[in-house]
């Protein structure tokens, strides 16, 4: 070490002082204002804020445009569903005449399509949105219509598929409802619509026909499933439901 | 939903103001972005603090000896900070009139640098790290700046040597981005970090205001802020490329970042007068406050983002808990139509413009850096990793550093690690 090789206390002391000069004398000024403001250019900041505001407004305008586009697609969807309900009623009458001879199940595909659209709308606009609730009412009507037709067909033509009515709520016992919904979705995917048909109803939807349905099946709990006329209250595991269906 | 919109709009506007200022800075100064040509060649003392670097020390010394600069105009001072391996012996073998090797007790990077300064005879002090390779013309590109009296330090254009793995790729983009960003900071006289791999100082500054702060874990930021607070200039050279080795494991990277970032908070406290807008410099009016604001905005934005996404993730786990994990089910649910619809849904979200704007701004900075530093390696994969993973990493490290700073946890140096890197806030 260099320090040890130095001879005499005087030399060592000098060396330490030399080192200390760099170690101990760090000067941190508490307040030091530069005399001139030469570094700072007001115009640059004004221009930058102006430019930023311009781009920002452009972004907001674009965002608004996208929102408007989305709302208009939803409106179109709503109109399409309205039309569907009407044609459904007519088809219902037509099908009554040759119920068993026709293998085609009316509007099955459409029903699936509308379900996924409603889920998308719920995600985008929120579950309490007025438009979403409105379209759900229409959808519930189609469902009941379809359910009655399929029930009729099953009895008259002696077909082997399960009909499931599922009552849920977005207000109370949400978690159980959600879980039961996942189970039914899963089974629907597994057995396809030839084997199982699920009709879901939001109990809180302000619709007379649902209230009637609830009183007909005496639904007092959420979630409740009616599988081929048999009532299941509360959440039921996948295996349990599967046993009843197959 | 309202909270989400508010956070998105505030973050976006802030980002736009920052980009606009950088953009205007570039266009106002695009003619004098190149380095001034050196007319005088003052004597330069390289100081390289080393600790247990027996494998690389010879290469480091050779790299510095090979630079383009009059041979009688520079010296290399190797300060062995009490290594326990053969670093000292290896370095001693190369000792000559130009290369001096010293040994002292272990005391940290700053103390080794200060030790070196006491033995330096140069008018300028160049600090370099043992894991840095200098390009041949790096020194000569930087020297020209010192012809201005007020310039006290010049930084280099710092790039990455080991860019191979995932952890390195995560950082590489940030280093590349930093090359041009540092120049833009310099053009606003707002450079406040003088990173280790290669930077040159005027020795008279040390004589007058003291050496590196040995009590501080980020002596590079401390020195930058000290020079700024004495109203001197720190410049940056875009063409003086140096290549440094960056951490290759997640834990070492994390340690390094947390050390830098807590250091930044501590330095900010020590030099809080630099934040005073009455100083009327770009640094005080905009760049330092913006650095702090960006940190807290990123926390806020990330919090809101996490809140909305974590709900979705929890729902997915609830679903798995009732249906079980089934591969068939996943295949059944997978369809390109669904993915396309989801993609379209994101694309037409009202916030997508801001996201695209942000990504493009950062990409422009990276491309500018690539152009000016003549980087030849492909940057696609590192950019990809950067945009997807880096935001999480950034928030995580800054948040940890902030918590450490608040509870006053002491940052340990561990074994002396002289690795330094770019510092962007």
Question: How would you sum up this structure in a few lines?
Answer:
With 246 residues, chain A is an alpha+beta fold. Helices cover 65% and strands 9% of the residues of chain A.
In sequence order, what are the helices and strands of chain B, one letter per element? HEHEHEHEEHEHEHHEHHHHHH
What portion of residues of chain B belong to β-strands?
5-15%
Q: Mean pLDDT of chain A, as a whole number?
A: 77
Strand fraction of chain A: 5-15%
Distance between the termini of chain B: 29 Å
Q: What is the CATH domain class of chain B?
A: Alpha Beta
SSE string of chain A, helices as H and strands as E: HHHHHEHEHEEH
Helical content class of chain B? 40-55%
Largest sheet of chain B: 8 strands, mixed
Coarse morphology of chain A: elongated
CATH topological fold name of chain B:
Spore Coat Polysaccharide Biosynthesis Protein SpsA, Chain A
Number of separate strands of chain B: 8
Count of helical regions of chain A: 8
Number of helices of chain B: 14
Q: How many domain units of chain A?
A: 2
Question: Could you characterize what this model shows?
Answer:
The complex is a heterodimer of chains A (246) and B (425). Chain A is an alpha+beta fold and 246 residues long. Helix content of chain A is 65%, strand content 9%. Chain A has a four-stranded mixed beta sheet with strand order 2-1-3-4, sandwiched between helices. In chain A, α3 packs parallel to α5 (130-157). Chain B has 425 residues and is of the alpha/beta class. Chain B is 55% helix and 13% strand. Chain B has helices spanning 2-29, 57-65, 87-93, 109-119, 138-143, 166-187, 203-209, 219-229, 250-270, 282-323, 327-333, 336-347, 352-372, 380-407, and strands at 44-50, 74-81, 99-104, 124-128, 132-134, 151-160, 198-202, 233-244. Chain B has an eight-stranded mixed beta sheet with strand order 3-2-1-4-7-6-8-5, with helices on both faces. In chain B, α9 (250-270) packs across α14 and α10 (282-323) crosses α14. The two termini of chain B are 29 Å apart. In chain B, 41% of the residues are buried. Mean pLDDT of chain B is 84; it is low at 414-425. The chains are: A alpha+beta (246), B alpha/beta (425). Chains A and B meet through α2, α3 and α6 of A and α1, β3, α4, α7 and α10 of B.
């Amino acid at each position: 070490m260099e320090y040890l090789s130095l001879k005499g206390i005087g030399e060592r002391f000098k060396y330490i002082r030399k080192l200390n000069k760099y170690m101990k004398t760090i000067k941190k000024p508490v307040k030091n204002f530069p005399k001139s403001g030469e570094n700072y250019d007001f115009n640059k900041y004004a221009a930058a804020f102006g430019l930023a505001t311009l781009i920002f407004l452009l972004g907001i305008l674009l965002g608004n445009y996208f929102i408007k586009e989305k709302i208009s697609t939803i409106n179109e969807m709503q109109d399409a569903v309205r039309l569907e309900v009407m044609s459904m009623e007519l088809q219902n009458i037509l099908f009554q005449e040759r119920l068993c001879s026709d293998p085609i199940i009316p509007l099955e595909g459409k029903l699936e399509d509308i379900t996924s659209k409603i889920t998308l709308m719920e995600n985008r606009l929120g579950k309490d949105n007025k438009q979403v609730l409105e379209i759900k009412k229409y959808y519930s009507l189609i469902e009941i219509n379809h359910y009655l037709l399929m029930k009729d067909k099953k009895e008259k033509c002696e077909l082997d598929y399960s009909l499931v009515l599922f009552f849920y709520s977005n207000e109370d016992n949400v978690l159980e409802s959600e879980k039961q919904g996942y189970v039914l979705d899963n089974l629907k995917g597994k057995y396809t619509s030839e084997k199982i048909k699920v009709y879901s109803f939001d109990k809180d939807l302000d619709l007379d026909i649902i209230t009637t349905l609830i009183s007909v099946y005496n639904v007092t709990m959420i979630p409740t499933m009616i599988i081929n006329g048999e009532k299941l209250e509360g959440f039921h595991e996948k295996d349990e439901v599967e046993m009843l269906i197959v | 939903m309202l909270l989400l919109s508010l956070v998105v709009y505030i973050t976006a506007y802030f980002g736009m103001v920052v980009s606009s200022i950088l953009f205007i800075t570039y266009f106002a100064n695009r003619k004098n972005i190149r380095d001034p040509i050196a007319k005088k060649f003052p004597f330069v003392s390289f100081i390289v603090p080393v600790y247990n670097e027996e494998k690389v020390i010879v290469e480091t010394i050779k790299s510095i000896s090979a630079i383009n600069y009059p041979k009688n105009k520079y010296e290399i001072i190797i300060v062995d900070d009490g290594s326990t391996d053969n670093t000292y012996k290896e370095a001693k073998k190369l000792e000559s009139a130009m290369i001096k090797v010293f040994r002292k007790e272990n005391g940290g990077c700053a103390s080794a640098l200060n030790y070196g300064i006491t033995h330096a005879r140069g008018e300028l002090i160049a600090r370099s790290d043992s894991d840095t390779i200098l390009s041949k013309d790096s020194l000569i590109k930087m020297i020209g700046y010192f012809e201005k009296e007020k310039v006290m330090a010049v930084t280099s254009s710092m790039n990455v040597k080991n860019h191979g793995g995932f952890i390195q790729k995560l950082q590489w983009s940030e280093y590349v981005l930093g090359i041009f960003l540092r120049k833009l900071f310099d053009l606003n006289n707002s450079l406040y970090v003088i990173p280790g791999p290669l930077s040159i100082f005027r020795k008279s500054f040390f004589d007058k205001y003291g050496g590196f702060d040995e009590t501080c874990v980020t002596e590079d930021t401390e020195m930058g802020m000290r020079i700024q607070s004495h109203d001197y200039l720190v410049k940056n050279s875009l063409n003086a490329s140096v290549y440094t080795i960056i951490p290759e494991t997640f834990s070492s990277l994390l340690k390094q970042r947390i050390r830098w970032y807590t250091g930044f908070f501590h330095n900010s406290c020590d030099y809080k007068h630099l934040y005073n807008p009455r100083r009327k410099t770009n640094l005080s009016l905009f760049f330092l406050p913006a650095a702090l604001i960006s940190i807290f905005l990123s926390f806020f934005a990330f919090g809101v983002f996490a809140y909305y996404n974590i709900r979705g993730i929890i729902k997915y786990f609830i679903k798995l808990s009732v249906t079980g994990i089934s591969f068939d089910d996943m295949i059944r649910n997978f369809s390109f139509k669904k993915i396309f619809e989801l993609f379209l849904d994101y694309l037409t979200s009202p916030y997508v413009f801001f996201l695209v704007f942000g990504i493009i701004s950062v990409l422009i900075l990276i491309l500018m850096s690539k152009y000016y530093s003549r980087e030849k390696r492909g940057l696609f994969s590192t950019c990809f990793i950067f945009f997807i993973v880096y935001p999480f990493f950034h928030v995580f490290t800054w948040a940890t550093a902030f918590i450490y700073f608040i509870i006053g946890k002491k940052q340990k140096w561990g074994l002396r690690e002289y690795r330094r890197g770019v510092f962007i806030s």
